[in-house]
Amino acid sequence: MVAAVRDFLFRRFREMETRVHELNYLFWECTTRCNLHCLHCGSDCTAAGGEGDMPVADFLRALDTIPEDMRGRPFTVVLTGGEPLMRQDIADIGREIRKRGVGWSMVTNGWLYDEAMHRRLMEAGMGALTISLDGLAEDHDWMRGREGSCQHALDAIKIAARERRLNFDVVTCVNQRNLPHLQEIYEQLVSAGVRQWRIFTIIPIGRAKEREELHLSDTQFVELMDFIAEKRKQKNLKATKHPTGQHINISTCLPSMTVTFSCEGYLGKYERRVRQTPYFCHAGINIASVLIDGTISACPNIDRQAFGQGNIYRDNLWEVWQTRFELFRNRNWARRGMCKNCKVFKNCLGNGMHNWHGDCGEVLNCHYKKVVNSQ
Prior knowledge:
alpha/beta, ten-stranded mixed β-sheet
């Protein structure tokens, strides 16, 4: 009964957020150039890049369509790619964004992130940073397609973790190769001083489509959920009672790092065990993106052709945000395929929007089904 009431209240909250659709995050795919060749890349990025870097003036014109009073609310521009640090003007970009009263952050593979770069970006007002680490040295380098990429990522992680002014987290893409080593990765990150570790899995798009070893079986997926749930349980412990009756505070002995699962899809019984808040795909609700060719969409991993909402070179970004995105805000269209008669659809709404690709005839992944199949 308690769980049912909580689910109902959260659905009401989600409905309210959808009606208001306040823009909180704007991703900018500022380049498709990359110094790595990741096996799971959904954009097929290369060192040359399929498109030239978008001129910063073009993006800023689009950003300037957002009213100043909306920029004063919780709102962040997230620089992504490709690898954003392939651009030589990244600090200048950050300063221009800050001049407009907007916070900015970045997602990076860490290869080019050293002490000098850290100082430049902090001076330019960077407020948040995400660095990817996809395993121990051999597994990370295999997945990232370049020897030494793990060490570069670890060096960058240690620099960022020391910066208390920075909202910093590490993301890990779990696959069949790194799943057995999660405890070792966990210990490595705790030792580096990381306070937030975000875990996600791979959907079969882009380069990952043909790599079976990147995709977890249902049993392996549940193993991952159990790992995260256990780490969160340990983190939430506050004190214990000694047999003598004395209360002993053990919080100083517990890891300081919070582990969470990403917003990929509804997880049934694992919902409140592996996340801070229940599942909610914010794509098109609180999140928009400007892609390398000017396409206006939501999170950059979403099918670009099927869900593009306009283009900054012919449309006003703010008007598009206000008047379009109906496919994101009303998910009734997702009641088809495996979702058609699903009893938990009201909680899931057809999984994360990035799971709908191609002709959008059926969702590619069902996380709830993985959990149920392994019970």
